[in-house]
Amino acid sequence: MRGGSNLLMTPEEAAVELGVTKRVLMDSYRRWGIPYLKVGKHVRFRTRDLHNWVDARMRAG
Length: 61
Description:
It comes from Streptomyces lasiicapitis. Residues 8-57 form the Helix-turn-helix domain. It is a single chain. By secondary structure, the chain is α+β, with helices and mostly antiparallel strands. It has 3 helices and 3 strands. 48% of the residues lie in helices and 16% in strands. The protein has a 3-stranded antiparallel β-sheet with strand order 1-3-2. Strand 2 (37-39) and strand 3 (42-46) form a beta hairpin.
């Protein structure tokens, strides 16, 4: 696991980071197991959690 920022990303920002549409992210983040938090009624993704989630799924080719 790498360090990173505690900065919170909106779903739009997280989708860009992952290279998917906001719709795909919002339809799938729970099923994919992406860590998230609720700020009131809004879903947010912590930068470090998103990067660690991606790193954990990288496969050596």
